Amino acid sequence: MTILELPVEQPVDATMERRRAIQVAASSSLRRRKLSSGIALGVCWAFLGIAIIPLIAVLIYVTAKGLPAWSVDFFTQSTTPEGIPGGGVWNAIVGTVEITLIAVAATVPLGLMCGLFLAESNGWIAATLRFTADVMTGVPSITVGIFGYIAIVKNFGGYSGLAGAFAIGFIMLPVITRAGETAIRGVPQSLNEAALALGARRATIARRVVVPTALPGIITGVLLAVARGLGETAPLLLTIFGNQYLQWNPTKPMEALPILIYNDSSQPYADLVQVAWGAALLLMVVVLILSIGSRLFAARLQKERR
Amino acid sequence: MSLPDNGYRTMLAVAAVIVGALAVWLVVAIVIQAHPAFVTLGYSWILQKTWDPSHGKYGLLPFILGTLESTAIAVVLAVPIGLGTALALAYLVPHRIRPVLSTAVELLAAVPSVVYGLWGLVVLAPLFRTTVEPFLTAVLGWTGLFNGPNGGVGLLLAGVILFVMILPTMVAISRDVLAVVPNEQLEGAMALGATRWQVLHKVVVPGARTGILGAFTLATGRALGETVAVAMVIGNSPYIAHSLKSPAATLPSLIVNNFGESSGTELAALFGAGLVLLIIGISVNSLARWLVWSTSGGNSQAGPR
Q1: Which of A151, A230, A234 faces B252 most closely, judged by CB atoms?
Q2: B23 and chain A: CB distance < 8 Å anywhere?
Q3: What value does the mean pLDDT take over residues A10-28?
Q4: Which of B20, B118, B278 is closest, CB to CB, to A261?
Q5: Which residue out of B114, B122, B216, B234 would a mutagenesis test of the A interface target, given it has the greatest number of A Cβ atoms within 10 Å?
Q6: Smallest Cα–Cα separation from A243: which of A163, A129, A182, A137?
Q7: What percent of the residues of chain A are helix, what percent strand, and what percent coil, each to the nearest 5?
Q8: Contacts of B123 in chain A (CB under 8 A)
Q9: How many structural domains comprise chain A?
Q10: Is B47's Cβ below 8 Å from some Cβ in A?
Q11: Cα–Cα distance between A279 and A283 in angstroms, integer?
Q12: Nearest chain A Cα distance for residue B114, angstroms
C-alpha cells in the first residue's frame, strides 16, 4: 500500500467547502451561460440574415425588371395612352422635380428658422412646438394628402402641382426643423460667445457662425427630407391627381413618378407595367443617390473642418 | 447688414408660429370637413361594421381593425428581428464589413413605399399563395388564424410588406442607440465574467431602451399610416377579416381607393376616416414620446431624430 492510496482525510474546512461548491456551480453556470450566449448570438445572426434577404431581393428584382425599360425614349417622352406602345416618364420627372423644388424652397427657410428658434429657446413654448413638430412627423401621409386637398385643391381651383408641393412640404417641414435644431445645438457655445463678445448681432451670428458650422447636419437633414418627400405617393394622389401629358405649369394637375408607378402597375398592359418598373428603378436610384450623397457630403465637410 | 436682435427674434418666433399653426390648421380643417358625416350619421357609425355607401352605411370598424391588425403583424415581426439585426450590426459583424451592411440597411429605408408595394404584389403575392400560406395553414392551422382559401393578397401579406418597410427604420435607429452605450459599461460587465450575450442583454439593451422605444414608435407610426403599399397588397375588402389570409382594408387604403369617386356624405365619411386615423396616429406617437420622455428622466431632447 503506497502512501497515495491512503484514504486522505481532507481537513473539513468550511471555507474550502464553500469554495468548492462555488467552483462547481460556477463552472456549470459558465457552461450554461456560454451555451445560451451562443444560441442567442446565433439567433441575432439569423435575424440579420432575415433582415437582409428581402431588402436585397427588392433591390435586385427592381433593377432586373426596371433596367430593360430604360431607353432614351423612356427619359425624354411622356406617357402614351393605354395600349399604345412606347412612351416614357418625362412628364413624371418634370412633375416630381418641380414639386420637390417648390416644396424645398418653401420649407427649408421656414424649417431652418424654426430650428434656430427651438435651439435658442427653452421655455414651454419651445417645448410645445418641439412636441408639435415631433407629432407632425407621425401624421399619416394620407392625412396630409387630405389636408392638402381641403386646404389647396378645394379652395384654389382644383388639383395642382402646388397642392402637391404643399402636402410634400408639410411632410418635409418637421424633419428639416428637428434636424436643423439638432445640428444647431451641436454648435459649440464658445463660438456663439466669441461672436457675441465681438459685438455681433444675433442675426449675424446665426448667418455667419451658427448656420455655417451646423451646415453638414442641416444639409443631411434636408437631403433626407427630400428623399422622403420624393417617395411619397398617397398625398400626391389626393393633390396633383396625375396627368398623362407633359405639364410645366404647377397650377395644373401634374404627373409624378410615384403616381405613375401606382397607376401603371395596376394596368393590364404589359408595356405600362414595364414603364412602371422602369420608373420604380429610377425613383429608387435617385433616392439612394441622395441618401449616399448626403452622407458623403456630411463626412467631407466634417473632415475639412478638422 | 443684419436685423437688430429684436427683429431677428421676432422673425424666428413668426416662423415657429407658422409651423405650429400649420399643424393646428390640419386638425381643424379635417374636423370641419368630417363634421357633416357626424351631423348626418351621429357618432356610432365609426364603430359600425358595414361599409356600404349605396345603402347609406359608412361603418369604419373593418378598416380600423384592418389598420391595427396589419400594423400589429408588422410590429410583432419587426421588433425582435429588428433588435437582433441591430445588435448584430452594432456588436457582432466584423469591423471590416460593418459599415457596408449598416449603410445598406439605412439606404433601404429610403426605398419608396410604392416600390415595396409593387414588389409585394408581383413577387410576394404569388409566393404566398403557392408556398407560404399552405405551409402556415399546415403548421399553424389549429390556431384558427389561417382559415379560408390561400389568396396571396390579404392581411398577412400586408403585414409582411409593412414589416419589410419598417425594418430599416427600426434597425437604423436601434443600431445607433445601441452603439453609443459607453464602453466602460461593456468592459465592466465583461470583467465580471459576463458572456457576450449577457453583456448585450443586460447592459447594452437596457442602456439603450429609450432609443429603442423611439425606434419602435417611429416604426409603428410608419406602419399605421402607410397607404399605397398596403392598398396594393391587402385585397381591399370592406369586411372584417376572419383569418390572416382574408383580404381586408385599412383606413388609408379605404381613403385612397374611394377618394376620387365620392362626394357628399361618403366624402365626409372618408374625411372622418382620415380623422380617426389622425387620432390613432397622434395618440400612438404622443404616448410613445411621453414614454421616451419619462424613461429618459425628463430629458426632452431624447427620442428619434
Answers
A1: A234
A2: yes
A3: 81
A4: B118
A5: B114
A6: A163
A7: 75, 0, 20
A8: 57, 61
A9: 1
A10: no
A11: 6
A12: 6
Domain presence at residue A27: no
* Confidence at B296, pLDDT banded by 50, 70, 90: low
Query: pTM of this prediction?
Result: 0.84
Distance from CA of A84 to the nearest CA of B (A): 22
A301 residue type, one letter: L
Which chain B residues are closer than 8 Å to A261 by Cβ? Answer: 112, 114-115, 118
Find all residues with CB under 8 Å of B110, minimum gap 6, and list them. A227, A228, A231, A287, A288, A290, A291
Residues of B in contact with A22 (CB under 8 A): none
Fold designation for B5-295: MetI-like fold (1.10.3720)
Q: How far apart are CA B269 and CA B46, in angstroms?
A: 9
A-facing residues of B in 122-141 (CB < 8 A) are 122-123
Q: Specify if A256 maps to a domain.
A: yes
> Nearest to residue A176, comparing CAs of A106, A78, A247?
A106
Beta-bridged to residue B248, according to DSSP, are: B235
pLDDT above 50 for B299: no
Is residue A245 pLDDT above 90, yes or no?
no
> Rounded to a whole number, what is the distance in Å from the CA of A143 to chain B's nearest CA?
6
Backbone angles phi, psi at B51, to 5 degrees: -110, 105
The distance of A215 to chain B (nearest Cα, Å) reads 17
Q: Quick one: closest CA in A to B103, which residue?
A: A292
- Tell me what pLDDT residue B304 has: 39
A137: domain range?
73-305
For residue B84, count other CB atoms closer than 10 A to its CB: 25
Cα-based torsion angle of the residue sequence B223, B229, B230, B235 in order, rounded to the nearest 10 degrees: -170
Question: Domain of A208: which CATH number?
Answer: 1.10.3720.10
Task: Give how far Cα A86 sits from Cα of A71, A278, B118, Å.
Answer: 10, 12, 21
- DSSP-derived letter for residue A256 is -
Query: pLDDT over 90 for what percent of chain B?
Result: 17
Of A136, A148, A118, A130, the residue nearest B24 (C-alpha): A136
Instruction: Let me know: does A145 contact A235? Beta carbons within 8 Å.
Output: yes
Half-sphere exposure of A60 (CA within 13 A, CB side): 7
Average pLDDT over residues B175-194: 85
**Boundaries of every domain in chain B:** 5-295
Within 8 A of A45 by CB-CB distance, chain B residues are 88, 92
ipTM rounded to 2 decimals: 0.84
- What's the grid cell of residue A150? 381641403
**Measured between beta carbons, which residues in chain B are less than 8 angstroms from residue A41?**
92, 196-197
Which residues partner with B235 through β-bridges?
A: B248
Burial class (CB in 10 A: 0-12, 13-18, 19+), B106: buried
Shortest Cα distance from A227 to chain B (angstroms)? 7
CB A240, CB A253: distance < 8 Å: yes
